Queue: 4 jobs
Job 1
Amino acid sequence: MTGEALDEVVRLLGRLPGLGPRSARRAALHLLKRRDAHLRPLAAALVRVADDVKVCAVCGNLDTSDPCAVCANPVRDRSVLCVVEEVDDLWAMERGGAFKGHYHVLGGTLSAIDGVGPEDLRIPALVRRIEQAPPPSPEVVLALGATVDGQTTAHYIAERLQPLGVAVTRLAHGVPLGGQLTYLDDGTIDAALRARRPFA
Amino acid sequence: MTGEALDEVVRLLGRLPGLGPRSARRAALHLLKRRDAHLRPLAAALVRVADDVKVCAVCGNLDTSDPCAVCANPVRDRSVLCVVEEVDDLWAMERGGAFKGHYHVLGGTLSAIDGVGPEDLRIPALVRRIEQAPPPSPEVVLALGATVDGQTTAHYIAERLQPLGVAVTRLAHGVPLGGQLTYLDDGTIDAALRARRPFA
């Protein structure tokens, strides 16, 4: 392969999650064959987000405005605050469209192995946010991953919020829609069984 | 998800081969978290290749110069011309480093289903190149894929070149290095058996 700029593109694309060296070469070639339809618009959009996208000082979301569109939206419900691990979890909730409240993005989970403590996440900011919220305090929904780190983080946050007397809830565990029992792990089946509901 | 520019980045990344909507969101988030280390360099490199990379008029390779570095290299062997389907095949050959001759990139394979005929590929350019080459004519190595379309294209090119009296060869078929017989298809085993060599 020749051309330093091209090598650089392949190298940088190959460092994206989900792309390796081989698929990065394929992607670079794909872009070069569609210069005006794909390559230039992508380059321009990347330049734009690099300059325009900010971290929302209130919730930690990424947006071109600060506070972000969710925080600035006067129609959204101030009585529920949904705590998520990452910005893409917030995006996933928003795609669903079922949640109308506000968010708080932690920026990760507590992790003893990776040395991530509460101060490395936006947990102190969450506590401050609840303390300073005008009464009544919002309900805090912990929408963290059903992983060891996610649940450790959820327990830690619930403990930190306990003295503030706010209602803390978590997402339900159970059979995902479209899920077949054969393919589910024992833990999920157990959780779904224990949380069984009257058949309406 | 909010912010038009961000949506645009996710949409454009998601159209790359190897990335879907989900991994495009992950890639966009990854880039936004590493703005100076990854996002800005990638945007700059893309802008550079969009402006600088040209198609070599001689062989069809992509490079910042035309003729490309391979064609312009006076050390390379003018007596062998390797015909490949795509630029990434040329890159693969160059990574191996075993081939020291010149290339000719077809830009695809003949395909009745997709309506790709000889005039859509750089086959006429190949014939002209051989005709106009100063004698002796180079050997033409057909390094096309061992697929139906690749082999159809190889046969077609061999027929077109026959009147010119050039030597036409193809890559050997056989067991790939590191390959285990259990995982090989019958066709490959058959080809390897028929092309067996004295054990040295």
Job 2
Amino acid sequence: MKAAIIGGTGYGSIELIRLIQKHPHLTIGSVVSNSQAGARFSDIYPHLSDIVDQPLESFDADALGENNDIVFLATPSSVSSNLVPSLLNSGVKCIDLSGDFRLRSTEEYESWYKHKPADEKYLQLASYGLSEIYAEKIKTANLIANPGCYPTATTLGLIPILKTNLADETSIIIDAKSGVSGAGRGLSLTAHYSEINENIKAYKLGAHQHIPEIEQVLSDESGSPITVTFTTHLVPMTRGIMCTMYVNLTEEISSKKIIDLYKQFYQDSHFIRVRPEGNIPSTKEVAGSNFCDIGLHVDERTNRLTIISVIDNLVKGAAGQAIQNVNLMNGWDERTGLTDIPMYP
Amino acid sequence: MKAAIIGGTGYGSIELIRLIQKHPHLTIGSVVSNSQAGARFSDIYPHLSDIVDQPLESFDADALGENNDIVFLATPSSVSSNLVPSLLNSGVKCIDLSGDFRLRSTEEYESWYKHKPADEKYLQLASYGLSEIYAEKIKTANLIANPGCYPTATTLGLIPILKTNLADETSIIIDAKSGVSGAGRGLSLTAHYSEINENIKAYKLGAHQHIPEIEQVLSDESGSPITVTFTTHLVPMTRGIMCTMYVNLTEEISSKKIIDLYKQFYQDSHFIRVRPEGNIPSTKEVAGSNFCDIGLHVDERTNRLTIISVIDNLVKGAAGQAIQNVNLMNGWDERTGLTDIPMYP
Amino acid sequence: MKAAIIGGTGYGSIELIRLIQKHPHLTIGSVVSNSQAGARFSDIYPHLSDIVDQPLESFDADALGENNDIVFLATPSSVSSNLVPSLLNSGVKCIDLSGDFRLRSTEEYESWYKHKPADEKYLQLASYGLSEIYAEKIKTANLIANPGCYPTATTLGLIPILKTNLADETSIIIDAKSGVSGAGRGLSLTAHYSEINENIKAYKLGAHQHIPEIEQVLSDESGSPITVTFTTHLVPMTRGIMCTMYVNLTEEISSKKIIDLYKQFYQDSHFIRVRPEGNIPSTKEVAGSNFCDIGLHVDERTNRLTIISVIDNLVKGAAGQAIQNVNLMNGWDERTGLTDIPMYP
Amino acid sequence: MKAAIIGGTGYGSIELIRLIQKHPHLTIGSVVSNSQAGARFSDIYPHLSDIVDQPLESFDADALGENNDIVFLATPSSVSSNLVPSLLNSGVKCIDLSGDFRLRSTEEYESWYKHKPADEKYLQLASYGLSEIYAEKIKTANLIANPGCYPTATTLGLIPILKTNLADETSIIIDAKSGVSGAGRGLSLTAHYSEINENIKAYKLGAHQHIPEIEQVLSDESGSPITVTFTTHLVPMTRGIMCTMYVNLTEEISSKKIIDLYKQFYQDSHFIRVRPEGNIPSTKEVAGSNFCDIGLHVDERTNRLTIISVIDNLVKGAAGQAIQNVNLMNGWDERTGLTDIPMYP
């Protein structure tokens, strides 16, 4: 099966290429970058020398449809909302890694993204691609809104407790830490080496566009509207997201019982590793892999639950989950092509 | 005035030496390290070549008292509680950088530190050296319990709001992030380069010995017993602590008003820089300096206050605050020897 | 085919496990660690949770021989020289990742390693596993002396020019830079985070035990005895080796011609990527992969050739080349299980 | 004495401000940045909050001359050559931190910098500010060409051996490694965090504009024309330069004798610390300080000398040496304001 990638020179695309090359049923078809069409891929990314030497192409929906079965869109926000209609029309299935099809509410989209939202019709077509939670819908979808990196780590960590009546739903605080690759390859002072090395920096307090996405999923899953406090920090590393999450408990319960509850919730989810008591995951323990590892601790002094969820932002937080969704859409084992052990150290 | 340092080969001592050398009224007297007595200092720390070449000495309270006016103890916990009595007896003033004299309750000490506590008599003599808050007591003290790095960043960030009736005191959550130098120079897997580089790691969940210290100060200052949730994370950088703190507000109030309130609270505190609205400090912005910078943000959607407090853990979190306390004890301007601009980038 | 690993808790073993798991013809048999026998692997390395949960075993040559077809020895120097005889006796093939069987001269071994050398008989049995150069001998070997990380990067970069008469063989200087994982998981001050972060450090000047190994290979390949100047530096990163090598040229020749010569020399070597003119590889461009990338530049002002060779020290410099050798020994395509694209960024 | 800074928002300026604030005889006058005139300094660099809050000014030679005694130019190449004439005219002394006045030959300047050179007249006026070597000329100069970072580390390491007849002057190879701050604050892919973290990268092979500067100084000091091979590498750290230099010796001589020779050469140079035998400096051991530390090793097997010279590129490699030159120009002790101990760790 041939997979095209649009937005070909960002880190998301590069990671898709790394993962597609391992996949037994996928090969790389077209790679599209309007800004660098004609350039050889390995000139822009020398690590691909002798592996992916093909030239970058311009966008052409019909040609893409003809030559490919699946299209991954790894474009900045407000781009894929314009490209997807013609692509679906040409007969391919689309996995959009941007935020354009994630929010059902066009008002919310406009208020957080400050762009014109996608057409309602396509928002309704789109399936939110949080693989562990929405596998059934994903299987039959033609358009996937692949989740954001922070929403993936956050919602996978919070949903099990919200499915019980143990959580005070007004108390949710998410303290998120991300490596710098999440900011992409576009130049900016916040991704400038000398500014972020030996530094931690909080950013976009209360204003991150992933907030409505998180709240939409958590509200859907808990059955009642949920508002969260969400703080993002940039830390001096390339890959990895850790979300440290705090929830007040409505009754006394041990760490062990909460862990059992999570283990049961995720018993069929191969990529979710719920850690035993006293064992808290670090980001490096999932680097390069599609795992989301979750550690749990009840602070008995305050009866508050701390949930620590880690992912590789470029894998489970982007390209890996996109492949996992393609596996589901095609009826393949969801692990196909995603069985790598994390790269440690 | 001559200052001796005990525990001479740890990072705390090294930072004391760096700061004492800048100080117009202090010179380095004895440097004591029982384990490496006789060795030349610059052989252990070549960055001190041609600057501090003196040999390390063994502990001798009388000799220390005779040759020095002040003694800094930068020893592991449970060491200074044994050394301080004889030192005070010999006539010097003591600044203890360990946790041995910080907790008034011997039970709390034993339960968190798992060591025998210091003698009650000396616990009562000790003044807690959070310079901005307890300056008056510090001025007349002979024994200073210099605060821990996390408690410094935490309490300076929380005290102003706790002095109002705006805070729900049961809601305090502290998400702390620290550079690796806080773990000292002692070898351990958590400070091993390949384990912590490109990694974030939470540790000691609900079990960090700084919790009772933080709660003691916050309870004292708010006037009612306070229990906090406190999570510590190791991040891949050498210096710096950031505490991201969350407090539910009891009424609606703007970020701007909270900032004004903090600015007023700290109007005479030269080392506390309360940032204007929308300006959140990063750790590098205080590196190498004695500043504690504080950023404030009210999330109007949840009416929750986020406080971000940053320090250099080895300066304001250890050696710098120790010097600041010596300044206070001697009636010098508290800034003496501490006026360095942060080293950026 | 079942592969055992001895020395199971070091970084070399961990990387072997990561690579064996990807290999279509290999599975992990026993993992031996005398010091931690009985412990569960994933307790020591949580990134292996739910993947490799088996207990570590004690060394038992007969049991190993019975249950495995191949044994990788990733032990400190002077260990495998004692274990290999009984292992070979038990019928398995051995790949030794330590230096014990690399030097033909027992005198040289003793003088650089300060240990008793392996028995002459086994030294003669051993094939030096520099896959691209000695493939023919490797194919029929039962005991492989897998090359050191520095010798791999160095010799692959130098051999082609030494095969011509363009090089002044007395002029070879190798300025090597390594990530910290090369120092292993054993605790030491030089691998202590706060000491090596934000730092470059030269070490073992003129005394590194890889010097005789490099000289042995270069002398063999050039046909005359070669002595080199070799300097090693520790740089603040986990993975990667770069060797910057300088050779005086005996006649004027362009960068382009040298590059052509290298491309021809390595035309059948899939893991060697000779870069085009003006394109110099960086270590991240091979991270996680078995590639050795080589950049070449003739400085016309001094008629000196600069060769820059990069590898991932844990892959092509250790576990990856070991797998490549197993592929050769079994008549499989040398790329089997080693086709991963480098992980970038 | 009042010091103005032109080019006010780069890392060089920021470091000048940090050092001037420590200096007993200097205060900051105007800070000029045409591109950001009117902006408050601490808005661009929050670490300067409450310390340097003055607005940035536009360039005005007369006003600068009236209000300041000294002007530091920390501007990109080809800017200061245009500003210096009017500044000198207005009566101030100028310290230029760019390359505009370093090369005596206008042809060389044009060929390496690809810009129009400064006017001959001013090139002749300029004194090259390598403080330890040219102190006498610096004392009476009105215009200082402050040395580049690489030339400082390189020439201080090589001059003593070139002053003897022990060196084969055709054999000099300089393998230089630099932290990323040397690339400045301007955005570029080579300073983009995710590209350089966990990476070493060689750049500008045989084409770095510091080559003619190094060769000019070495030729002057040795008395005969010298051509060097010079390779630069970017390493993942913010500050620090290490130059590893190789020189063939013309006779057999011990490390110890070479070290004695260097110690004698630099006996009156407070900022040069020649290390004892077996003690090789690392960059962190000079971080934040004006020291240049030098380690020396004779490889007896090849009779080649390895010289390792380290500096903080922003201090001894830029702002610190500029202050040292101002000290010399004013007859102050050259250490004035520069006595800080390196910040370790």
Job 3
Amino acid sequence: MNKIRIGSVGLGRLGLQHAVNIASRVQHAELAALCDVDAAKLKEAADRIGVPRRFAAFEEMIACKDIDAVVLASPSALHTGQIAAALAAGKHVFSEKPLGVNVAECKEAEKAVEAHRDMVFMLGFMRRFDESYQYAHDKVAAGEIGKPILFRSYSQDPEKFIAGAIAFAPHSGGQFLDMAVHDIDLARWFVGSEPATVYAVGGCYAHDEFAASRDGDNVSCLMKFKNDCMVFLFAGRTAPHGYNVETEIIGTRGILRIASVPQKNLVEVLDGGGVRRECSQNFLERFDSAYVNELQEFVNCIIEKRKPAVTVYDGTRVSEIAYTCKAAFESGELIKF
Amino acid sequence: MNKIRIGSVGLGRLGLQHAVNIASRVQHAELAALCDVDAAKLKEAADRIGVPRRFAAFEEMIACKDIDAVVLASPSALHTGQIAAALAAGKHVFSEKPLGVNVAECKEAEKAVEAHRDMVFMLGFMRRFDESYQYAHDKVAAGEIGKPILFRSYSQDPEKFIAGAIAFAPHSGGQFLDMAVHDIDLARWFVGSEPATVYAVGGCYAHDEFAASRDGDNVSCLMKFKNDCMVFLFAGRTAPHGYNVETEIIGTRGILRIASVPQKNLVEVLDGGGVRRECSQNFLERFDSAYVNELQEFVNCIIEKRKPAVTVYDGTRVSEIAYTCKAAFESGELIKF
Amino acid sequence: MNKIRIGSVGLGRLGLQHAVNIASRVQHAELAALCDVDAAKLKEAADRIGVPRRFAAFEEMIACKDIDAVVLASPSALHTGQIAAALAAGKHVFSEKPLGVNVAECKEAEKAVEAHRDMVFMLGFMRRFDESYQYAHDKVAAGEIGKPILFRSYSQDPEKFIAGAIAFAPHSGGQFLDMAVHDIDLARWFVGSEPATVYAVGGCYAHDEFAASRDGDNVSCLMKFKNDCMVFLFAGRTAPHGYNVETEIIGTRGILRIASVPQKNLVEVLDGGGVRRECSQNFLERFDSAYVNELQEFVNCIIEKRKPAVTVYDGTRVSEIAYTCKAAFESGELIKF
Amino acid sequence: MNKIRIGSVGLGRLGLQHAVNIASRVQHAELAALCDVDAAKLKEAADRIGVPRRFAAFEEMIACKDIDAVVLASPSALHTGQIAAALAAGKHVFSEKPLGVNVAECKEAEKAVEAHRDMVFMLGFMRRFDESYQYAHDKVAAGEIGKPILFRSYSQDPEKFIAGAIAFAPHSGGQFLDMAVHDIDLARWFVGSEPATVYAVGGCYAHDEFAASRDGDNVSCLMKFKNDCMVFLFAGRTAPHGYNVETEIIGTRGILRIASVPQKNLVEVLDGGGVRRECSQNFLERFDSAYVNELQEFVNCIIEKRKPAVTVYDGTRVSEIAYTCKAAFESGELIKF
């Protein structure tokens, strides 16, 4: 079987991890090229991973005939443009979230994808590829917990990364866009319905800097979905203990909790602190295998001429919801979808 | 030291437990009399516990000179009348929640208490007397978790008691009044502030019977408190695993979770179900010692001529909030306090 | 019903707790008298608890007609003498462990008990009265875990109490006599058989002072019981996290673990230490209700003219086994019973 | 970098997994050939994985010039012969445990390895490559728990696989050789010392069939190591809940527990069984990534011309200890090394 030759764009923390994963952990894939505007970073990464072809310009990379697909981990504002260009150049596209920085852009991406129905397009909602989330979703899909009553999901970043979060705040779109977007995706996936209402609250509990972006360091929202399921989401930047992504689905016949203790491994420590589990500290650690699995699925879809379960419309829908949450937060009013 | 002679009213499940606790587990107290309109139930309980004096009429009981205090576990609609009468008769009063069945009644109770400032009046918010809740509250009060960001509290009754809940639904006032009232009390106690807004959702996920009372079998609400703390409450009647009262307080420097596994004891079972903890099944089991502790505090207050930390105004305030949650649930609209 | 009037002997930490429990937490009991050779300690305790009758001499106390029973928390070397004297004086006797400081003494105690078959005699194996141990024992007795394969039990005292343990070492009889004796009692109770062999190891890992008493700061033994069940016991003085008494029973159809996390309550803390449970720090905290329950059973046996399930022969047998463990530890050889 | 071309021998459950791992999960490696005497099994696996070169005869495979290394998952009795032959043919060798079926064979393997010091030889003690065991070992090595006092390790196979275990019993060497061998390896690795004494017990608690091989279905042993550390090992075939490999290291300053709940993932289920974690069911599931990591280390050693930390002498030593445990079990006597 010929390997899928992938050009990967963007060498931030996640982009770098995608590059390493493609090069060494995704089957039937080959890291054919790397692209980044930062020449030094590009050279360092390409040398280390062992990628001969390097591009400063995205357009040049997608002009290459022998590249089959691109992985976009570029700045969010570039996503929709690069999606359209790459599809037009005949490349399959895997894009990191968000699909676009506003809903209009998402609609543009939809058009591009619709114009190239023979190509594979996939969005990076990696949590769906975490084995624990998949295991829980299988149980829900099999009816093991009955009808969903309450879906609760948290995304908490450790306080120790707060400086970066503050610096990025003016560009992040806020906690709902930047963090809760994954929880919104999970809510739609698990609940199988769409939000009907949203009320959002929050504030700057430890770091007033977020107020300048009309955001909070911790926010939450309560939504009612069209099938009546209650959805409560919480996103925060000040977790004292680690990177805490946890989800609970309360059903009429059973309850599932995913990662309610964000333990980094199976070691339990008994010392002056009591009996304790040390915690994962960031998304790359917690979702290490999920990042591999999602790219594997992307590659498998290309090979098997299938379409991923995550569609471009999921990207638009999640963005719409996140923007509505943000509007609810900013206005302090209940919003009906 | 002379014992405080208590007359206890009402022999439902909780009233019976109060009677047993006074008779045998509360120091410096004596169960002097029992009162219930059901003659058979009264005889059975009084014989078993060993209480010579029995009353069908509350008025007769409080006419007794040698009774120092009354414990009210009577039907909610009788509370405020009995409170006023007992205080007027010179008895200290411990009343089960709710203070009254509407806010007007609560205000009547306030007046009665204010008219007898030399008497001890206490409301049965027993969770404050659970050792785990007290331990957590001490930590919060000591500033160990910093400023509160999110307060989340669940009250879930097991599905197996659903028939009783349905039968009682027309009289219960709904889940916010009947169940979440304890969570509202905890929220005010832990957060140290009052609600500013509330949005409430829910529905009949398994049992349509609750709709007739404009209620759901599971409900939740998101509030913003005046000090900006987010408060999320969930109350449900269909828990598959047991009686699940859990609370989380996320602060800027630490997070506390109380009873996130509602384990009945310290036994872990490893069998075909995996590694598992069996759960408490009802409030009497979970809060067994809290029910003793609260009555002990009531008795201690009488002896030491102190006033309990839980005041009649807490009862009114919690009722007002619960009614507002109920109104928010019924209207589907955001309510600002 | 008349209350059982109890005279309590010895005002060390546990003796004091017994006194408080009798005075205020055990039903149908009355703390009629206190006895201790330390006059200051006696006055302080008796004043605080409110006990009018105080004795320096045990003989004087048991000469009182209106005392029904004695609770012995005196020095171990006095136990058998006091047991015999109290029984001869017509008093029911509850004695703390150990029954005697050697097996010959235990046999004396047996004779005294046999000579007064109308009196209640009970030994303080309090773990049998802990609700978690009782719950587990009920499951084992009901056959829920099948046939016992391995019984494992730990008794660990926190390092912070090491100074007291070292000071007491010459008189304690060693870890097997002083600590593992409770695990030996549990083993016989759960397994329902007697040891056939024992091999014991251990040493001074942190504190060489124990070597002077031919003991270790941490020791363990592996026994084979006559019904083939394997029994592994571990006793240590250097626990970094708290007072850790845990037990596991592996059966052919199920496994039970009691207190494998020695959590002090239901609060979980999430902070820089990860997700953690704070631990119980001493036996009085961990077995608070068990100490009440065992005295309640003692009193109930007196009232109901029953005999406790724990007999004087259990005391002798456990002592014999503990001495054999100690001999195995000292010799380094396998001992067959 | 050229890939290391590996020929893999044996297509049992573990052999098959090794083949898949080499083909798709180990970096810088290529599955060049497969070898098995079962032609049907060989064809099926080679077709599925996509390996063109297939061998019935091991000798033919190692005669190939373009094979760099072999992975041995063949029957235990063939290990030492194949190790010697492969090394003589200039191949690096990774062998599954056990090194040999008796100590004499192990010594033969040592000689073969010593005769080819330029080749990489590695034994499959995969637990050392599990991330949780590595994390714990790093803490121990860094002195975080002080001096080791007690090392306890369990290996339990689920009851549901008992038929296979009984069928294999005459050839397995018994529980100490077949299962506890991994715990012995861990003990030496964590404790950093060698056993001085061993006492072993056990029996047929559920399945008398093991008696015919002078073995039990569950066995345990207590060893004292030369540095005084106590070591307790337990191996069983009748676990009711799953595949339970857990380890505890009690030190003078801290305690570590690895996998004390053998949870299969991060999902917690709340249902009629209480709050529960579902368990891993077999070694391939539990040690999935460890099996990849150990082969990765093997390949990395070849590439970097390093020697693995696990040596042939570890294989001999572990076998010697396991045989001594077995002898102790069979004799019922204490054995001093």
Job 4
Amino acid sequence: MRLAWLPPKRVLTFANATSPMALNTPQIRAGERRGYEMQQQISVITLGIEAIERSRDFYTRGFGWKPVFENDEIVFYQMNGFVLGTFLKTALETDMGRSGLMQPGAFSLAHNLAREEDVEPLMRQLANSGGRILRPADKPPHGGFRGYVADPDDHAWEIAWNPFWQIDAGGHVIFGL
Amino acid sequence: MRLAWLPPKRVLTFANATSPMALNTPQIRAGERRGYEMQQQISVITLGIEAIERSRDFYTRGFGWKPVFENDEIVFYQMNGFVLGTFLKTALETDMGRSGLMQPGAFSLAHNLAREEDVEPLMRQLANSGGRILRPADKPPHGGFRGYVADPDDHAWEIAWNPFWQIDAGGHVIFGL
């Protein structure tokens, strides 16, 4: 959620926008001979965590989400078109072939709500489930209402109401201005 | 993505799994009086970046993705059910109300491909678009084929073929074993 408060250099019109419908068209890269279909797709977001149960409590009690799979080193959640994984950081480092992953990392995740009045109650619930308020909710210059909460591993979650973005009943989010 | 090589503690059956269909059912939290619909949803992944153009080159040339919106501090990409944002790190820190965000952060993103033979060509293309190979592709113990590439801001991308996960024509990814 943040919308741009600087003037846009380019905004695709609705007809041009890469909507889920548009993604149905295979995108073959010009000049490439491989010909694989280039989807505008992310399949997994994996968060490195220190302790499975502590993280699991935050996501299952705080957000109310249900794992689709879990064992002693990873918990997977089926999300809106992709998968969220919470994976022991040491195991993620091994899989990635690099060490020294740090928190807080230079990224954030967002969960958008349908109603402005739901933002603060969810933030409180997250804080009561092992999270920590980073920024109390307020109105950003571009409109809407949002705050930030850190999960138990210091990963940042923006909890937001943004009246300009569409969210369908299946949780699929479409950019809007 | 990695599948579990440790025995699962719990695997939801297909009927129980939180599929996009299942997400259509509002999840009202037991014992809560607020009654907002708790979607198993992430609306945005925001990556903190140092320079717009450098990052934009990686995502538009490397992955072949098209921005849905861009200005001097942020580029948004409409993804499979959510939005990817690449945002100047200083602006992200201001929005988040915290400083000191670090790279490499303890997370990774994954892009899954339909064919094993597409993994290495995409990794090369990403490396030729400002990325850097972190781990050459190989076969993990749990099956499939994957490697890791860092984007120009040192955010890790897993490029994977996983025959057990479903990806529909719209790019929506469903967990599988």
